[in-house]
Each structure stands twice: as C-alpha cells, then as structure tokens.
Design a protein that fits this description.
The chain is of the alpha+beta class and about 150 residues long. The chain folds into 2 domains: about 5-80, GMP Synthetase, Chain A, domain 3 (2-Layer Sandwich); about 85-145, Ribosome maturation factor RimP, C-terminal domain (SH3 type barrels, Roll), CATH 2.30.30.180. About 25% of the residues lie in helices and about 45% in strands. The protein is built from 3 helices and 9 strands, in the order H-E-E-H-E-E-H-E-E-E-E-E. The longest helix is centred in the middle third of the chain and has 18 residues, at about 50-65. About 15% of the residues are buried.
C-alpha cells in the first residue's frame, strides 16, 4: 500500500493555508531503504530554515493524528530551491519571462529537452522562446519543467 498524496495534501491543506504557504510539490519515495515524504513549500518573501522546521513539526503532528500514512516514513520539509519545479498553470504564469528547462514526455522533432524563456501560457500550451526561435508544448505533454536561473559569479 502506497501513500495517497491527494489525501495527504487535503489533510494538511488547512495548516498550509493558515500559514500562507504554497505547496509547490509533494513526493513520496524510497531513498536508502527508507520511505521519505517530502514537501516543497514556498511563501511570499521565500521560506527560511526556521520556517521549514516549524512547518515540519506542524505537518508531522497533523499527519500522525490523521493516521494517513500506511508505513513509517521520514518527513522532510524544504524550499523549492532556485531551480524550482513548475507544475501548475499558475507556476508557469508566475514565472513568465524567466529562463526554464523543459523535459517532454515524448520527443518533439527528435528532442525531449528544451531551454528558453517562458513567454506565455495560452490555451494549455506553454510557449518558450530562445534565440528568436519559438516552441509550443502542451502542458500535459511536459514531464518536468524547472526554473533555470542565470547565475552571475
């Protein structure tokens, strides 16, 4: 029996809303022989290490009380990082103009990986532009999309 991520999200939604925290991603996986439940959270102004610790305690208490986890697990609460994943329409809209890396579920013109600037989300299509070339991808055809910030050193 695997964890029901929708049930977990519903169970903790109240505390996330109360704390004005966005659930960016939720993962349940096996790492090093243990089960890990990983929350990637964000909020206005960014999320700090203290926020992660505080939210971990709140979320852990709620999950333990609700008894929604079928197995023993390790709970991790983290920021989405500078290479934040983009999953929902609102993520793509929020980061218009930013550089992103997109991996498609199926190849398009022999390629699955694309990088460029996110220009728009239109009728379920993500529009990416790079060096004057424009590409469109159906949102449901994207396996993974992440911010790909340009870092200056």
């Amino acid at each position: 029996m695997e964890a029901d991520l929708k049930l977990i999200e519903t169970t903790v939604r109240g505390v996330l809303d109360q704390e004005a925290v966005e659930l960016v991603d939720l993962q349940y996986l096996r790492e090093g022989g243990r089960r890990v439940l990983r929350f990637f959270l964000d909020k206005a102004g960014g999320i700090t290490l203290d926020d992660c610790e505080y939210l971990s305690n709140r979320i852990g208490g709620i999950l333990d009380t609700a008894n929604v986890m079928p197995h023993a697990y390790v709970l991790e609460v983290s920021s989405p990082g500078i290479d934040r994943i983009l999953k929902k329409e609102r993520d793509f809209l929020r980061f218009l103009g930013h550089r992103v890396r997109i991996c498609l579920k199926e190849p398009l013109e022999g390629r699955r990986n694309f990088m460029g600037y996110l220009k728009m989300l239109e009728e379920g299509q993500v529009v990416l532009e790079d060096e004057g070339r424009t590409a469109r991808f159906p949102l449901e055809g994207i396996e993974e999309a992440r911010l790909h910030p340009e870092l200056e050193i």
